[in-house]
Every structure is written in structure tokens, then in C-alpha cells.
Amino acid sequence: MTICVTRFAPSPTGPLHLGHAYAAILAHDMAHAQGGTFLLRIEDIDQSRARPEWETQIEADLHWLGLNWSDPIMRQSDRLPIYRRALQRLWTQGLLYPCICNRRDILEAASAPQEGAPPAVGPDGVVYPGTCRHLPEAGLPLPQAALRLNMRRALDLLGAPQLTFVETGSGPLGETGTITVSPDDLCNGVGDIVLARRDMGTSYHLSVVLDDAAQGVTHVTRGRDLFEATQIHILLQRLLALPTPLYHHHRLIRDEHGKRLAKRDDASAIAKYRSEGATSQDIRQMIGLS
Ligand code: GLU
């Protein structure tokens, strides 16, 4: 039997709030209920926003919540050479191309064919209209370019792939059980996603699949808002010959107006409840995990 390995993967860009507490406790309790391992990963590739002070605060809040993780803590900022190696592999296979478009270029090009109709939006934003896909590579200033995945070529290389994953929680429309990822949706609804942002040398999607595999994560637990991104992760796992874990997307904690909690919502910060004398049991009760 495989031992259950879960992880909590916060970005150190602000205080933990009730939504993070929910995600962390769920992952922790799932591993412990099965005699497994709970891991921590600090997703700090966005160096313009990540701060060591937030990481310290996150660890203190998690300990206060009664959560312990197995060492070592993984930090994405330590793993840039690993991400680069994976990009080199995909580049050698002819699956990447440089892109110098900015947000405005993309929006304009994506809106142009439909004159006024809103452009298609996928889990990674506006579906890239392909402007740089056919440019001669020699003409592009590589250091200032992002690297995009040529989705059509990636699917062709895999040859009519059967892409599935097992969802043990549920997606936004109640999707659960074995979920089939459609190559058509990947081509038309997701498109040529960025795998290396020019300012980071990697992207959330690339890092998360490499890191989950490197940490031996067997059950990815995370918010339902990332359900749609999972199809991208399954595809990348295939391209990079990585295992596909089980996925458990969970409900999102909302404020009293039904709005999703954000990092800037200090009102729901764990640190605030701590300073007001709440106990970790109170927090579990507030989010329905006691
Ligand atoms: N770092 C992401 C976040 O803070 C979590 C990503 C994941 O769980 O895959 O929302």
C-alpha cells in the first residue's frame, strides 16, 4: 500500500488566513489519518512579492494550529536549476517557443477576430492567440522572452493521449471520481501557456508538478479554484514522465459576504485571532474541521 503523502504549499506573500488554515489542516489530517506524512513547501518563485518575514510568520501560525510537518521544508527558490533542466528537456523536444507579448498585445490580438466579443479565457487567463508561435527564433531577444508550451505539438508528441486523474474531493461543478482531460479543451480552452515567465525563469504550473513529484506527494489537496489548472498539470506530468498523484480539491472559505478570502483580508488573518486569544480548536470550529 502506498503511504499517503500530502503537502501544504503557501506563497509567503502575506499572512495566513482562515482559508489557508482550512487547506493546511485538511492536508495534515488526511496524512495523519492514514499514518502518512505531511510536508511543507514554500512557493516563493515570485521574488518580487515573497518575503522571509512572511515565511517565519506562516511557520509560527502552522505550529500554533498544532500542525507539524516532516523535514525538510522545500523552497522553490532553491530549485531554479531543476526547473531549468526540465525546460531544457522540453526545448530540445521542440515543445517551447519564446514569446515577447505583453498583456495588452495578447488581449488585442485575442479580441481582434471577434471584434468586441470577449476573448476565450482558460485556467491561465486569456487563451494565447499564438502571435509569437511562428516567429523565427533567431529574431527574438531570448533573455527578455517568456517560454510558452506549444500545446498542439505537445499533444501530437504524446499521440492521442488518454489523460485522466482521480479526484477524491470535487471540482466547481461537483466533478469527482475519474476525470478525463480532453485534448480539445487543452488546445482551445487552455492554449499555449507560459512555462517560464521572463521575471522568474519558471511558472506556477511547471514548478508545482516538478515539486509534487520530487516530494513524493501522493495526494494533492488544494482549493477548488485550482481544479481547472489540474488538466495542465496532468499534461506536464506526461511530458516530463512524472507520476500523477490523486487530487482532492476542497471548498473555499468565504467571508460573510460570500467573497473568497484574500491575503490582504487581515480581518481573517490567523495572527489576528491568535492575538485576540482564540485557540487552535476555535479556528477548527470556525472552518468546520473540528
Ligand atoms: N501556492 C498556491 C497557493 O498559495 C498553492 C498551489 C497548490 O496547492 O498547488 O494558492
Automatic annotation (TrEMBL):
Give the record's family classification.
Belongs to the class-I aminoacyl-tRNA synthetase family.
Read off the NCBIfam families from this record. PRK05710.1-4
| UniProtKB keywords | Aminoacyl-tRNA synthetase, ATP-binding, Ligase, Metal-binding, Nucleotide-binding, Protein biosynthesis, Zinc
Its source organism is Thalassovita taeanensis
Q: Which Pfam family is an annotated match for this chain, by its short name?
A: tRNA-synt_1c
| Protein's UniProt keywords contain Cell membrane | no
What GO cellular component term, any one, is given?
A: cytosol
Molecular function (GO) terms for this protein are: ATP binding; glutamate-tRNA ligase activity
Give the UniProt record's GO annotations in the biological process aspect: glutamyl-tRNA aminoacylation
Source organism phylogeny: Bacteria, Pseudomonadati, Pseudomonadota, Alphaproteobacteria, Rhodobacterales
Question: From which domain of life does this come?
Answer: Bacteria
Q: What is this protein called?
A: Glutamyl-Q tRNA(Asp) synthetase
Glutamyl/glutaminyl-tRNA synthetase class Ib catalytic domain: from which residue to which, for each copy? 5-107, 177-287
